[in-house]
């Protein structure tokens, strides 16, 4: 008996199976196995042409790059189970990873391990957001066995990039390459810490570029940017955040995910292009957060039918789906710049800034190079008719906090990201005092500050801060305890970043004394920040 399966159905089944098997390549302590700008001074190593000294080239690259690769150990204290989710939706990488691995949604302590690489001699380190997101303590180990406590400078869930910092100087640093010039078939090395096997080097080739829609299930964020480099260099749990290095010893990507039904390497690994990661890093260091420029439209890859209806000989372009600049945690949409400029649903964008758009990831990469407020010229096809429009990009609303630190410029209060964030040095979690939060807590609508949503048992804040408190002012030693109003999480973090371990910080707190009458009172909370 012969069973016939159509090619389209077979491809659809294969795609579903493939996407369902894509997992982050970080290491979670859940089971025995699944605990699993170039710089002038950086060395550049070339593999000899003609393949006569490939082995020697690999050795030279490993020798040059491995000292700048770090092992990351991250720990998170136990959380009340009720705070792990909001409205029944996954709110963190832990929830997403539990979906992949089928682990129970408990609230116990958590540990993870991953990889990073040093990008500056004074201690900036690039890694994956999912390696450090939500963690209370981060330890970085170097190849020379030195260990450092690290702090998160900023992180971006949309690209899964994070920047952390260790306090050291004269460190070895990698050279950042140009992934745009990388070609399919080129040799690459992946360096990382799979399954706790620190500083492991594996070799392979670039298998494909521009992987995006195929991995859509990896990141549910509305404003995700995915433009992965695919490689067959072995990547396993623990490799997350490590460098993908080309034959010249330059980093061209951050190893981030694997396609696997077992959780282990099966031949498909994915890396975030370094040019995208560097743009995110530069934003974080310069502005304290990621300023993402968007046109306010959903896009899909062009199909043969789209090309035909527009009289195109080749299948290329990004097709406009719908228009929305979504307000975080709501179904409300703000005005779309693309729709305002005259773009319509079904339009096929074929050029932007005078550059050909062959696929969605190409357009995403181009837009990511812009800042909010920039004007971009688009050429598009509308049922065969050529159109040209100019769109003034807007900033994507943030539904995730992107933290700032002492050597980053504080984000403006009116640009503070939405969403709650933990303050590990205090042992509390805070969230923006939105109108809905104020109404639910019976607080005056005119009150400005950030609301305390959780207090970690045993922390310095236990018995001093309580859920529902609103921090309205902060005074730190670095400012001679001058009063600083608190109107955003970013502003509060900027002030706390000036505080050294052992110093005392003073807070003015407003709280409700009588929910029925919405009566409030004020108190001062002084805390000594721990080690």
Q: Mean pLDDT, rounded to whole units?
A: 77
Distance between the termini: 72 Å
Q: Report on the biggest sheet.
A: 7 strands, antiparallel
How much of the sequence is in beta strands? 25-35%
What share of residues is helical?
10-25%
Low-confidence stretches: 1-20, 28-52, 82-105, 399-418
Shape: flat
Number of helices: 10
Q: What is the radius of gyration computed over CA atoms, rounded to a whole number of angstroms?
A: 24 Å
Helix/strand-derived category reads alpha+beta
| Count of beta strands | 34
The gist of it:
With 531 residues, the chain is an alpha+beta fold.
Describe the structure.
With 531 residues, the protein is of the alpha+beta class. The strands form seven sheets. Strands 28, 29, 30, 31, 32, 33 and 34 form a seven-stranded antiparallel β-sheet that branches. The chain has a six-stranded antiparallel β-barrel with strand order 12-13-14-17-16-15. Strands 3-6-7-10-9-8 form a six-stranded antiparallel barrel. Strand 23 and strand 24 form a beta hairpin.
What would the keywords be for this entry?
alpha+beta; disordered N terminus; 6-stranded antiparallel barrel; 10 helices; 7-stranded antiparallel sheet; 531 residues
Write the layout of secondary structure elements.
Blueprint: H1 7-20, E1 22-24, E2 27-28, H2 54-65, E3 69-76, E4 85-86, E5 89-90, H3 93-101, E6 110-118, E7 124-128, H4 129-132, E8 137-141, E9 147-156, E10 161-166, E11 175-176, E12 187-192, E13 200-211, E14 228-231, E15 243-246, E16 250-259, E17 269-273, H5 274-287, E18 293-294, E19 297-301, H6 304-309, E20 318-323, E21 325-326, E22 333-334, H7 337-340, E23 348-352, E24 355-356, H8 360-368, E25 375-382, E26 385-392, E27 394-395, E28 421-423, E29 428-432, H9 435-440, E30 450-455, E31 470-475, E32 484-485, H10 489-496, E33 504-514, E34 519-528
Parallel strand pairs: 11-16
Antiparallel strand pairs: 1-16, 2-6, 3-6, 3-8, 4-5, 6-7, 7-10, 8-9, 9-10, 12-13, 12-15, 13-14, 14-17, 15-16, 16-17, 18-27, 19-20, 20-23, 21-22, 23-24, 23-25, 25-26, 28-29, 29-30, 30-31, 31-32, 31-33, 33-34
């Amino acid at each position: 008996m012969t069973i016939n399966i159509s090619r389209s159905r077979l491809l659809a089944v294969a795609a579903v199976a493939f996407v369902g098997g894509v997992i982050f390549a970080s290491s979670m302590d859940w089971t025995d196995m699944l605990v699993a700008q170039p710089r002038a001074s950086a060395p550049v190593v070339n593999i000899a042409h003609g393949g006569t000294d490939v082995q020697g080239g690999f050795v030279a690259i490993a020798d040059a790059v491995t000292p700048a690769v770090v092992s990351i150990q991250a720990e998170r204290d136990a959380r009340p189970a009720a705070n792990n989710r909001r409205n029944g939706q996954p709110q963190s990488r832990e929830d997403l990873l539990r979906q992949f691995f089928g682990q129970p949604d408990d609230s116990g302590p958590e540990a993870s391990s991953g990889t990073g690489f040093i990008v500056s001699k004074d201690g900036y380190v690039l890694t994956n957001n999912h390696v450090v997101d939500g963690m209370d303590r981060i330890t970085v180990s170097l190849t020379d066995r030195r260990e450092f406590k690290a702090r998160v400078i900023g992180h971006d869930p949309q690209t899964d990039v994070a920047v952390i910092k260790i306090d050291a100087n004269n460190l070895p640093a990698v050279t950042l390459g140009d992934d745009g010039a990388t070609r399919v078939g080129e040799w690459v090395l992946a360096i990382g810490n799979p399954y706790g096997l620190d500083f492991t080097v594996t070799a392979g080739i670039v298998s494909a570029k521009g992987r995006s829609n195929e991995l859509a299930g990896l990141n549910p964020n509305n404003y995700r940017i995915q433009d992965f480099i695919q490689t067959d260099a072995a990547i396993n749990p623990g490799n997350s955040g490590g460098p993908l290095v080309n034959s010249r010893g330059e980093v061209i990507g951050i190893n981030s995910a694997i396609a696997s039904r077992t959780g282990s390497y099966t031949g498909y690994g994915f890396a975030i292009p370094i040019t995208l990661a560097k743009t995110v890093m530069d934003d974080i260091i310069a502005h304290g957060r990621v300023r993402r420029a968007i046109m306010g439209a959903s896009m899909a890859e062009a199909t043969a039918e789209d090309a035909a209806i527009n009289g195109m000989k080749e299948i290329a372009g990004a097709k406009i789906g719908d228009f929305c600049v979504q307000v975080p945690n709501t179904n409300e949409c703000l005005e779309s710049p693309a729709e305002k400029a005259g773009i319509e649903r079904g339009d096929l964008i074929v050029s932007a800034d005078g550059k050909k758009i062959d696929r969605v990831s190409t357009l995403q990469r181009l837009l990511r190079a812009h800042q909010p407020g920039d004007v971009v010229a688009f050429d598009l096809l509308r049922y065969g008719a050529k159109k040209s429009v100019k769109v003034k990009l807007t900033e994507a609303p943030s539904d995730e906090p992107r933290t700032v630190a002492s050597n980053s410029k504080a984000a403006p209060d009116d640009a503070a990201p939405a969403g709650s964030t933990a303050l590990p040095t205090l042992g509390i979690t805070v969230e923006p005092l939105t109108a809905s939060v104020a109404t639910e807590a019976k607080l005056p609508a005119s009150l400005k500050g950030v609301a305390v949503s959780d207090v970690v048992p045993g922390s310095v804040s236990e018995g001093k801060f309580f859920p529902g408190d609103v921090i309205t002012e902060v005074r730190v030693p670095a400012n001679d305890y001058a009063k600083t109003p608190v109107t955003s999480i970013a502003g509060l973090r900027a002030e706390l970043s000036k505080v050294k371990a052992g110093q005392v910080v003073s807070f003015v707190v407003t709280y409700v004394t009588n929910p029925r009458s919405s009566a409030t009172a004020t108190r001062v909370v002084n805390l000594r920040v721990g080690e």
